[in-house]
Specification:
homodimer; alpha/beta; 16 helices; 419 residues; 3-stranded antiparallel β-sheet; 42% helix
Chain lengths: 419, 419
Amino acid sequence: MFQFDLIATSGPARAGRWTLPHGVVETPCFMPVGTQGSVRALSPRDLEAIGARIVLANTYHLFLRPGEETVAKLGGLHRFMGWPHPILTDSGGFQVFSLKSMRRVSEEGVEFRSHIDGSARFLSPERAVEVQWTLGSDVAMAFDHVIPGQSGREAARDAMERTGRWLGRCKARFQALESVRGLEVRGEGRRETTAPASGSRPLDGGPSPLTPDLSPLTSLTQSSLRRTLVPIIQGGTWPDLRRESAQRTLALGDWDALAIGGLSVGEPKAATWEMLESLGPILPAGQPRYLMGVGFPEDVVGAIARGVDLADCVAPTRMGRNGAAFTDDGPVNIRNARHRDDPGPLDPGCDCETCTTFSRGYLRHLFAAEELLGLRLLSLHNVRYLIRLSARARAAIVDGNFEGWSRDWLTRYQAKEQA
Amino acid sequence: MFQFDLIATSGPARAGRWTLPHGVVETPCFMPVGTQGSVRALSPRDLEAIGARIVLANTYHLFLRPGEETVAKLGGLHRFMGWPHPILTDSGGFQVFSLKSMRRVSEEGVEFRSHIDGSARFLSPERAVEVQWTLGSDVAMAFDHVIPGQSGREAARDAMERTGRWLGRCKARFQALESVRGLEVRGEGRRETTAPASGSRPLDGGPSPLTPDLSPLTSLTQSSLRRTLVPIIQGGTWPDLRRESAQRTLALGDWDALAIGGLSVGEPKAATWEMLESLGPILPAGQPRYLMGVGFPEDVVGAIARGVDLADCVAPTRMGRNGAAFTDDGPVNIRNARHRDDPGPLDPGCDCETCTTFSRGYLRHLFAAEELLGLRLLSLHNVRYLIRLSARARAAIVDGNFEGWSRDWLTRYQAKEQA
């Protein structure tokens, strides 16, 4: 479980296959984000139809609403979302550090106020791991200290070192939970004695009481499956801090994957790429590399070019709801009047429901008339675009021609913009 | 074409089959409403999956935005909506008469101000028919004079008589367009000489220039197919005026279907039923009867009980967006806190994607978190509920047991409400 097979490389770009408890993910792979347990405007069937194989959910949001206990009572995150495939949960670190004035950071953790009702809440490395455990994601992320993209070196060092210390605490709590799961899987655990001190809930939910009508779905609650904790490399925009963070991380355990966080948070793009390039040589080849928060087409291709295997972002759905669509000829704003009478598809090269069913004229009408279907159709296309883009990159890597393919792709993608 | 076969009766309730150019509709049938060319929050695939066979669109809305010419340029209404099955368009009468202060009625037609941009617009019997012709719906509705449910007898008589006079004008314009279509189908028509004086557009669009990528969809543009015009019986809440309206209507032609309008507009429910009961004996058995604007479950069953074959309403989608779901045990408000930890389905008896995939707890979360998917999932279920309800009623009629079935259904549907 969680084995990563490197299939091919083309320069630093990598094609691989990551085997998770709920399914296999071919990499490079774009992961759609279901912040609150729903990839906005899309259903699980939509996501399956467009080739999504793993989705994200956010610990911060689900911790506040509906609460991880409720998700567990409802059968765990897979059952909750109706998504029987792999799920990765972000730890909440990024969100709580984004709250700025509403939070107080200490070595113990982060006190913050809920953006929903202003209530005082607390997340620590241990709590973040417990919440994700209760949610039941396949991949839990370590609780990290994220700083703005323009932060100074001292702040970057502090946050990187704290992230390292917190990683040790995340790992300890995760291992404790894993050992209890192992006992339960072997029938040796007794729930009332093995529950961790911090929680009154059943350890990982177990199969919830389902009505007979939902019995086909109980397979979504696979509480006996192994999970993994993935560390996050920090270090701001300083290559040496990034490398130090990677080395500290690698020294702390034998991880199933490695994440690179704190990028795409306001720093210049050149700095993002420099960090990836400085990390590339020291990261082990045998584990997937996950660049957090990247999801514009040119950035996804740029990340793949620098060895990234996994990426996630809300961009495709957010852009879609704003009427912007990704195409090989650059972004299209469907609200533009020039699409009014256009009977052609949004993206002639795309195989999604939006592009094979509807005209640009109709899609523009949906946005002009504020019809909900428009939000969904452009979100669907944009996610499909990034999934297909990743698959096209993978094919080029396997062919040993990633550089040529990506240059051609980028030239066309940027042609209209520069014209 | 447009043949209606009466399969069975059970008291006044009827089971039939209506054959239209784009498909066969088994009756009783609930027709979802796509006001602006989209059944709100649902895709054509969703509608196919839940058994919808015919949908509505609104002439008033499409006339104002994007305009019937644009719809024609985009391949006609079927192609525009991505719906290759039957489509019925309302004439705009109901909408323009609902504008109250923003309209001026004369014998010629109705001048009104667009609710979108305040521009002065005009619809008449002739224009309403032309707009629907250009849109390309299978079933066009006559342009009628609709009055509020509490109107006095004189107003009801005036509106009924005007509706009758306007029906003659609608029919004349429709026949002129049909004869031109006949010439064109036989290859005898020349577009430049046969276009009606009022329009600069191609007569019915014809196949629009489609990109090669959309060629599989050109079958949606079936301009050579016959269409029909359906008259609307008015007369307020006066049985004798209703009967007079029906008789005037029947004297005016050999219609493919008959609609009953101006009900469900604020009158007491008993009055609605009285009108249907007074019309029942005088309406010909061989044509489907369409009750306009009815779509709450108890009203659909009540209408079927009184011989109605077709009904439409925005209720299932509007209610769904508000978090209200139809079930055999009465409406459920999914926002209610009691659903928070409920792992059971929204409606245990339902076979829709919503009920077979998600728990009540998850659906409540979607509404609490204001996720778009919630609007869609409850809309999907509610439309499915009415389609399934119509099919269950049909089965009971075929079994000769409609009265028993409907009594049992209503008892259960209202039990919790009365408890």
